[in-house]
Amino acid sequence: MSEKYKAKNPEGIYFVTFAVVQWVDVFTRREYKDILVESLRYCQQKKGLIIYAWCIMTNHLHLALGTDGGMALADIIRDFKKYTSVALVRAIQENIQESRKDWMLSILKEAAAGSSKHLKYQFWQNQYHPVELTNNDQQQRCLDYIHQNPVATGIVSEAEAYVFSSATDYAGGKGLIAVSFIE
């Protein structure tokens, strides 16, 4: 990985995106999104991940995050991606309702065939390019971008209505996992 794309500041807040290989629309089913949410919660509780903003789209996940300093951000991300890759592939394989199972698994298998580090399936694209948010203006633009993603793609008409986003938290509702940028 290039030096340009590393989370160097252990106290920094970073914008990252994790995308499914070939941009496959895996997260159209709630059970797959729930796996991501539970894994993010685990990383918060056990690994010191701090989530300032998040949004699960159909084929990618946006996050603004940092750490409490106990574990490096790159290590948390590595563990998150590794765990969710296995859990999501297993969930797809075991889902008797999944009409796209063979198609999705063939794409994930093909992606692994071109990789030296994945044995059978590759779920996530390798890159996540952390971008440090060093001031309030950058944080606000990131927050707006993350929260408006489901609106821009037509999933909801108002950001606060999308359950799988921290827009609910920022609107004063009971969200799933985010803490505010605001101190």
Structure description:
With 183 residues, this protein is of the alpha+beta class. It has one domain (3-170): 2-Layer Sandwich (Alpha-Beta Plaits), CATH 3.30.70. It contains 5 helices and 4 strands. It has helices spanning 30-47, 73-94, 101-113, 136-152, 167-170, and strands spanning 14-19, 49-56, 60-67, 131-132. Strands 2-3-1-4 form a 4-stranded antiparallel beta sheet. 32% of the residues are buried. The mean pLDDT is 90.
Describe the structure using short key phrases.
alpha+beta; 4-stranded antiparallel beta sheet; Alpha-Beta Plaits
**What is the domain tally?**
1
User: What about the largest sheet?
Assistant: 4 strands, antiparallel
CATH superfamily: Transposase IS200-like
Query: Mind telling me the C-alpha Rg?
Result: 16 Å
- What CATH architecture label applies? 2-Layer Sandwich
- By secondary-structure content and strand pairing, the structural class works out as alpha+beta
Helical amount among residues, as a percent range?
A: 40-55%
Strand order, sheet with most strands = 2-3-1-4
Low-confidence stretches: none
Order of helices and strands: EHEEHHEHH
CATH topology: Alpha-Beta Plaits
| CATH uppermost class | Alpha Beta
| Outline | globular
Write down the overall mean pLDDT.
90
Strand count: 4
Assess the beta-strand content as a share of residues: 5-15%
Tally of separate helices? 5
